[in-house]
Amino acid sequence: MTETAVRLSGVKLKRPNFQLGPINLEVPRGCVTAIVGPNGSGKSSTFRMILDVTKPDEGEIELLGERVEPGSSSDTALRQRIGYLQEESLSHERGFRASEKAAFVSQWYSGWDVNRYQELLRIFEIDPSLKLGKMSKGMRRKFDLAVVLAHNPELLILDEPSSGLDPLAWKQMIELLHRYMEAGYHTILLSTHIIEEVKRLADYIVFLVRGRVLGVYEKDELLSSWFVYFFTDRELAARADIQIESIPGKQSLERMTGMVKITTDKAVEAEDWLRQQGITAAGKQALELDDILELLVERQRLLTRHS
Amino acid sequence: MWIPVQINEQSAEPLYHQIKVQLRALIVSGQLAEGTLLPSIREFSQQVKCSVITIRRVYQDLENEGLLRTRQGTGTFVAKVGEQERDRHRLDSVVKALEEAVDAGRRVQCDEEELRRLFEQVVKERLSAEQNSHSQPDYEGD
């Protein structure tokens, strides 16, 4: 289980107006890893380098135990084991019928399972006789996902899989991906903006901001370490002997009317510390993923300014 | 199989610990009988909406305690629980719930005397309510 599905070592991509990396990242096999970050952070570029569509300027990429040699993208044996859902559907396919695209794609995959493909069409309620250009955005997305899953890949790379999906279709997709993961040896690497998607799917979270990896976290550990505590001025005045700002993991301190609000990224230690000091918080709250991302971005901004 | 474990995201107690305490309670109380096949790690993680890493850790810890055993290729089962073990863990979840109640009281500046009085009052009310109604206790399920 500790095996690595995708490994990026010192990967860099240089463009006139953007630099990505150096990225060092290990995506564990058998797990779901979500890359989270604002638009333009380099998520799609990272995926394109992993898939050898874009050549990195520096660094090495390893995929399912094999080194990706830039330029040898004809490595079909490796391709057979991967399913890739692009961020945008290809516009030149608009004139194709769904069934025609599936027939075309199936030629390239020896593992193409026609029964599985049919079942996916049924689950997603897709009419394969429709032209791709005539499909709604959501149906097109579901169809593309069905095509990507039909050859039963070991590794799924999904670039914002839920864009355009309505809540019901989104739920179907989540369930489908859950079922895909039950095999135990399957791996998903996805990028997303949707916090609920990360919560429902991910085992690991990678924060990618302005071309840099801010950190790789185990989801549950991350979500249970970031907390906000509220203390009343009265409580703090009564305990003037205690420096509340020395609470472990303090990330920010904000004064509000009658209250002090403190954010920590070490909730377990903070809790112990409060107990030892004998201070009671008037309230506490776990942070949501987007709040954590915002604070990490802010912390990074301060770090780069001071260095 | 559905395992009645409920997690509290607003608790600063690590998720894996919350799940471990509850699963252990289900086993030592006999609610999960010896030989019961537990859900796969992935299945259980989806059920509780946490990551597979957390569940793997819980299964490993309880296996080390002798409460679970894993058979390669078949899955994770509830092991035989000795009397001693049963006694040792029977009250774990009760102690935890009481600790949380005391914390809640301290947040609104209750002193010891007040806490004791409240505790006795709640015990009295609950037990008499139980005696009055012979119907099932209210159970909140999903």
Summarize the structure.
The complex is a heterodimer of chains A (307) and B (142). Chain A has 307 residues and is α/β, with parallel strands linked by helices. Chain A has helices spanning 43-50, 76-79, 98-106, 114-124, 137-149, 167-181, 195-201, 219-225, 233-238, 267-277, 289-306, and strands at 4-15, 18-28, 32-36, 58-63, 66-67, 82-85, 155-159, 187-192, 204-209, 212-218, 227-232, 250-256, 259-264, 283-286.
Structure description:
The complex is a heterodimer of chains A (307) and B (142). Chain A is an alpha/beta fold and 307 residues long. Chain A has 3 domains: 4-81 and 154-219, P-loop containing nucleotide triphosphate hydrolases (Rossmann fold), CATH 3.40.50.300; 90-149, no CATH class; 227-286, Alpha-Beta Plaits (2-Layer Sandwich), CATH 3.30.70. Chain A contains 11 helices and 14 strands. Chain A has a 6-stranded mixed beta sheet with strand order 6-7-8-3-9-10, with helices on both faces. Chain A has a 4-stranded antiparallel beta sheet with strand order 2-1-4-5, covered by helices on one side. Chain A has a 4-stranded antiparallel beta sheet with strand order 12-13-11-14. In chain A, strand 7 (155-159), helix 6 (167-181) and strand 8 (187-192) form a beta-alpha-beta unit. In chain A, helix 4 packs antiparallel against helix 5. Chain A is elongated. Chain A starts with a strand and ends with a helix. In chain A, 34% of the residues are buried. The model of chain A has no long low-confidence stretch (mean pLDDT 88). Chain B has 2 domains: 15-82, Arc Repressor Mutant, subunit A (Orthogonal Bundle), CATH 1.10.10.10; 92-132. Chain B starts with 14 loop residues before the first helix and ends in a 10-residue tail after the last helix. By secondary structure, chain B is mainly alpha-helical. In chain B, strands 1-2 form a two-stranded antiparallel sheet. Helix content of chain B is 56%, strand content 6%. At the A-B interface, helix 8, helix 10 and strand 14 of A face helix 2, helix 3 and helix 5 of B.
